[in-house]
Amino acid sequence: MATNDEILNGYARSLRSEGVEETEIARRIHLLREERPLLDADRYNRIYTSGNAPFNRAPNAFVMESLRGKRPGVVLDYAMGEGRNSIYLAQLGWEVWGFDPADAAVELAQRRARALGLTLHAEAVADSEFEFGHERFDVIVFSWAMPLIPVETVLGSLKPGGVVVMEAAADYVGRNGMLQMFDALRILKYEIVRDTADWYDRRQTEIVRLIAVKP
């Protein structure tokens, strides 16, 4: 899975091959960098606040299975959406941090958490704007979400011995994409299965699942 910078660099190379001047390339790249968070926020706000959106609104089954029985610590819910996993983890006693570019979805998560007497440290930002910090988290959860920034930045926020849990469609991440992305980690579990998609259209598809630990 290419990062946002890699996508933009590829676009710039394509423009150069077409003979576009550097000043125009720089202008277009700047616009894409500035506008992408707004476009993402608008798209996901519409999805998450739709009453008939067919994505799974229950906590992700693989996340629940992967963290079952694990002593609660500090967890980052990457691109948390409307908080289905965040709220579940907070109910188990985890200190939950999360972010998502969709501000309406984050507010919905906060309202649900408050109604249950829970605390979420949630921000309406893209991953490029989130302050990951250094060795903050015991677990990072990617539930049908992928980093659009260098993965090294993300993993720098994971404590030694910390765990990454990820599930995504194979046609999005690639059959070996997760292994390449997290090649600096020790892989505890990696599988490709055919199952019902957790995200949006709920179709039958190949799903990739990974659990990995930071040395």
Concise description?
This protein has 215 residues and is of the alpha/beta class. The chain has helices at 4-17, 22-48, 61-67, 84-91, 103-115, 151-155, 170-173, 177-181; strands at 74-78, 95-99, 120-123, 137-143, 158-169, 186-196, 204-213. It has a single domain, classed as Vaccinia Virus protein VP39 (Rossmann fold, 3-Layer(aba) Sandwich), CATH 3.40.50.150.
Structure description:
The protein is α/β, with parallel strands linked by helices. It has one domain: Vaccinia Virus protein VP39 (Rossmann fold). Helices cover 39% and strands 25% of the residues. It is built from 8 helices and 7 strands, in the order αααβαβαββαβααββ. It has helices at 4-17, 22-48, 61-67, 84-91, 103-115, 151-155, 170-173, 177-181, and strands spanning 74-78, 95-99, 120-123, 137-143, 158-169, 186-196, 204-213. Strands 3-2-1-4-5-7-6 form a 7-stranded mixed sheet. The mean pLDDT is 90.
